[in-house]
Structures are given as structure tokens and as C-alpha cells.
């Protein structure tokens, strides 16, 4: 193997590692007002789709949840929660239900803390 080939191998490995290092996370929220029909789901999806870092949005009418898959290098759970306000909705992280009773809403910090904690578990 000559030097040129060795460099190409290194370049290929680096590219692979960079792609694998992408920080993809999911955020599950419930909304106020609640989703009642496909129109509500479409409204949420079509608005969230253009938010920076959003990869995928899945809505569940029965459970009243919106699951957002996002690139944590480009956005945060707190920013996504806030983005619901742009189209008249309020979002609450489902996992945050427990500490909602303690922490006042619209605090960005608890969401950030959980994000860091879950990153460590992964
Ligand atoms: Cu509806």
C-alpha cells in the first residue's frame, strides 16, 4: 500500500466516524390544545418539519403524543418545545411530567439537564 492509498483509507475512516457521531435524539411531547383529528396532526407536522434539526415527526392521536426525532447538534429539546408556540400550541415533554409539579413551566433548563443525563446513559 502506497502513501496515497493509506491517505484514502484514513479519509474514509474519518468520514465514517463523523457520520456515526451524529447526535440523533428523540423528544416526546403532549400538546395543548390536544390533537383531535388528522388535521391537527398535519398542522403540527407541517409546522415542525421546517424547524432546524428536525429529522422526523410521528404523531399518535390515541396517546396524544408527538415524537420528534432531531439532530442534537443542530437544535435542543427546549428549542423544539418552544417552536410549538409559533403555531399556537403548547408542548410539554412527556418525560417531564414528574418534575412539572416542582419546576415552573417554560423553564428551558430542566429539559437541558435531562438531555445531558440521557446522553450519558446512551
Ligand atoms: Cu383536528
Q: What pattern of helices and strands is seen along the backbone?
A: HEHEEHEHH
Radius of gyration: 18 Å
Number of domains: 1
Task: Enter the CATH topology name.
Answer: Alpha-Beta Plaits
Class of secondary structure makeup: alpha+beta
Sheet of most strands: 4 strands, antiparallel
- Strand order, biggest sheet? 2-3-1-4
Count all strands and give the number. Answer: 4
Write down the CATH class: Alpha Beta
Any guess at the CATH architecture?
Answer: 2-Layer Sandwich
Q: First CA to last CA: what distance?
A: 38 Å
So how many helices?
5
* Rounded mean pLDDT score: 81
Query: Low-confidence runs (pLDDT<50, min 5 residues)?
Result: 96-114
Approximate strand percentage? 15-25%
Helix content: 40-55%
Which small molecules are bound?
copper (II) ion
Can you offer a commentary on this structure?
This protein starts with a helix and ends with a helix. A hairpin with a 4-residue loop joins strand 2 (54-60) and strand 3 (65-71). With 122 residues, the protein is of the alpha+beta class. It is built from 5 helices and 4 strands. The chain has a 4-stranded antiparallel sheet with strand order 2-3-1-4, with helices on one face. It binds copper (II) ion.
Amino acid at each position: 500500500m502506497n502513501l496515497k492509498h493509506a491517505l484514502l483509507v484514513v479519509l474514509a475512516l474519518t468520514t465514517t466516524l463523523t457520520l456515526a457521531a451524529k447526535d440523533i435524539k428523540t423528544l416526546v411531547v403532549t400538546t395543548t390544545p390536544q390533537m383531535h383529528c388528522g388535521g391537527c396532526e398535519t398542522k403540527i407536522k407541517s409546522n415542525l418539519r421546517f424547524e432546524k434539526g428536525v429529522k422526523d415527526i410521528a404523531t399518535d392521536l390515541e396517546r396524544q403524543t408527538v415524537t420528534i426525532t432531531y439532530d442534537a447538534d443542530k437544535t435542543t429539546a427546549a428549542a423544539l418545545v418552544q417552536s410549538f408556540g409559533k403555531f399556537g400550541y403548547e408542548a410539554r415533554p412527556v418525560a417531564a411530567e414528574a418534575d412539572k409539579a416542582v419546576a415552573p413551566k417554560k423553564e428551558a433548563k430542566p429539559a437541558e439537564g435531562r438531555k445531558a443525563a440521557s446522553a450519558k446513559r446512551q
